[in-house]
Amino acid sequence: MKTFARVLFVIFIFASTGCAAAGGESAPAAPIFTQPAPPTFIPALPSIPESRRLTLEFPSKMRAGVEGDVIRLTLEVDDLGNITPTAQIEGNTVVGDTIQIPDLYETHNVTAEARLDLAGMQVQPAEAIYEPLKRGQSATFYWSIHPQTPGTYRGTVWLHLNFSEKITGEQSRIAISAQMVQIKAVDFFGLSVTVARASGVVGSVVGGVIGFPFLEDILKFFFKRRRARHR
Amino acid sequence: MNKYFRLSLAIFILTLSMALLIWAYAPNPRETRIQQIAPTEMQLPTP
Questions:
Q1: In Å, how far are A70, A103, A170 from A56, measured between CA atoms?
Q2: Taking a C-beta distance cutoff of 8 angstroms, is the pair A95, A87 a contact?
Q3: A101 and A146 Cβ atoms separated by less than 8 Å
Q4: C-alpha distances in Å from residue B35, one per residue of A77, A83, A130, A143
Q5: Yes or no, beta carbons of A196 and B29 under 8 Å apart
Q6: Inter-chain contact A101–B13, Cβ cutoff 8 Å?
Q7: Which residues of chain B does A54 touch, with a Cβ-Cβ cutoff of 8 Å?
Q8: For A179, which residue in chain B has the nearest alpha carbon?
Q9: What ipTM does the predicted assembly reach?
Q10: Cα(B6)–Cα(A31) distance, integer angstroms
Q11: Which has the least CB within 10 A, A153, A189, A198, B28?
């Protein structure tokens, strides 16, 4: 009798754990047939088929006052750049052919837009500058800056590309670069550039006049040394 | 003594004037940054 009760208990335990593993459902799970998903074709977006190099040139330190300087931004074609990207997976194995990227120049008018935001300093031009971007051609932007007072000026040089579709005229815009610039404007112990230049010229004249009477003595001294060496 | 004082004063004024002129006419130090832009960065924005 005890043996029969034990067998019943063991059967009950197995039955209850089996139901729990099946999520409380006694019906067997239906087999799942998975089909491999068809490869999705994502069309490549039109892009500019050139690698480009963006060069920003600016004075890191300059004199405050009337003097100005120039900031130059150039977007030029990089001849050494790779212009045909290919599909790759991990391990650097090429699994596809060269991706054919539609040429943006054929379908859109491309315009480079550059702007310089520099707080506290006089910037010319203050507005954005636009320049059409053609195939193989570079675009250069210039700003003239005039720091009136000494100090550290920080700003951002922005470059956007504007696309205008030739047929529909649809406009779109992307940001290419935003670079922080820091320019330190200095003076000469409180003297501005104009005062320093004027003082330098006047001081040279005054120093020359004061030292002129000794010019004869200095020349005599050097000639005496030279004669002494020859003897 | 007067002679040496005048000579010292002339040298001092000339040195100061030269320092002012060099500072006022020296070219500003320039910084150049170069950034490579790949074609994938110059494509139409995704809708």
A1: 11, 27, 30
A2: yes
A3: no
A4: 12, 16, 20, 19
A5: no
A6: no
A7: 34-37
A8: B33
A9: 0.80
A10: 110
A11: A189
SS (H, E, C) chain A: CHHHHHHHHHHHHHHHHHHHHCCCCCCCCCCCCCCCCCCCCCCCCCECCCCEEEEEEEECEEECCCCCEEEEEEEEECCCCCCCCEEEECCCEEEEEECCCCEHHHHEEEEEEEEEEECCCEEECCCCEEEECCCCCCEEEEEEEECCCCEEEEEEEEEEEEEEECCCCCEEEEEEEEEEEEEEEECECCECHHHHHHHHHHHHHHHHHHHHHHHHHHHHHHHHHHHHHHC
d(Cα B31, Cα B25) in Å, to the nearest integer?
19
The C-alpha angle A205, A209, A214, rounded to 5 degrees, equals 135
pLDDT tens, position by position, A120-163: 899 999 999 999 988 888 899 999 999 988 999 999 999 999 99
Q: CA A58 to CA A71: how far, in whole Å?
A: 5
Tokens of A35: 């089909």
Spatial separation of the C-alpha atoms in residues A32 and A120, rounded to whole Å? 69
Q: Is A55 on the interface with B (CB under 8 A)?
A: yes
The whole-number average pLDDT for the span A188-204 is 88
Partner-chain contact A63 B28, CB within 8 Å: yes
Cβ pair B13:A207 closer than 8 A: yes
* Pair A173, A159: CB distance under 8 Å: no
Query: Out of B6, B24, B31, whose CB is closest to A200?
Result: B24
Predicted structure pTM score: 0.67
CA distance A50 to A47: 9
